[in-house]
Queue: 2 jobs
Job 1
Amino acid sequence: MVKKTGFLLLLLLSFVSLLSVEGELRPYRLIHADSLEAVKENGAYVSELRGNVHFFYGDTEFYTDTAHIYEEQKIVMMVGNVKIYDDTLSLQAKEVEYFRRQEKLKLNGSVFLEESHRDSTWRTFNAEKVEYLRDQRNFQAWDNVKMFDSREQINGSCGYLTYNGEKGFGFLRDKPELSLAQQDTITIKAQKIEYYDEYKKIVAIFEVETIFSEYLITSDFLIYFSEQEKAIYRGEPRLYSSLFDAEASEVTIFFVENALERAELQDSCLVTYKVTEEGSKENSVSSDDMEFIFTNKVISECRAHNNIISNYIQQEDPSKRQDYLENLSRGNELIMYMDEKGYIDHLNMQGNISGTYKFSE
């Protein structure tokens, strides 16, 4: 039931007048409210709508418990179960301020946004505070931010996120984290993570960690290309696993559906590795360039090229009638073949081979 019906005619007249004021392109249109009241403040009318409020501004649809519409300033204040639908975008929050002249939305409290795409994929955001500039397609979110992109299968979280749809650029900061899930889950952490063109390129900057189920890669800088399925690491990249550690000036990882396929190490390469489960990573190979081949998440082959120095240590093991042996060798090419668990099966060195053997006394 509409209260204070003496104001109803005045309100209707004011709504109609909005169609022609200042070349208005997005008129206000009330669909329903349990109660309606017009209050004059500083010479201008404020419409107070309460209970099951439903209205449009142009093609944008609004639902809320309570709305205060400042007609002269073109501002709407909404409180309680706010829902907004604008083309492919839907928004929910506890409180929303809508500045129609700037086409700006300020959302507070349990904010949820969902953007649907023509290919039936979608993107969602959760945060405590959001500002959205509709015309510029500029989006900012603060506090406990979480996002999901179904097209790229990406989950993210951070303290602050921004994205500009016109530029196709955004970034996460304040403990940002992205997880890419397909065959294997890849998690990226850094001080700042930038993303371009619908996550087709991701750049992580400073204190970068890339976490796989079996491996960890650290670096100062990462560029990930989703379409080429590769990641480039620079700034003292290091690769760690239970069986080996590796480092180089630059590391490039190649994937197939996010599963590790191959790694290329360039310049000042060094790998230290175990030869037995009980042993330590006391064996090493250094070279100008290296290549790792992965099979079922395990390195099945390692190829080293140019200026190779290999230090292979065999510890004494009386149960296997095995004596201590240390082999320091040099060459131009080295291939290390691993068994199905990733341990060295045998080695093959070629080109200008030289070296020394040291046995136990």
Job 2
Amino acid sequence: MNDMKNLKNLRRENLKLINGGTGCDENCPVGPYGLGFPRSCADFQALPKCCEIYVKVSMDCFPQ
């Protein structure tokens, strides 16, 4: 119960860092990315790092 009071005092910037917040201000296109998909692996690799976990991507886009 005491932990909930502490959460109310956090600033919005800090709330984004809590697990579940995006923390990414970029417009992340969903994809999919990979061989045979509308967007290429090069397009995926050009995304900002914060977008990489929010898009659909084929395993072909990762080095073996």
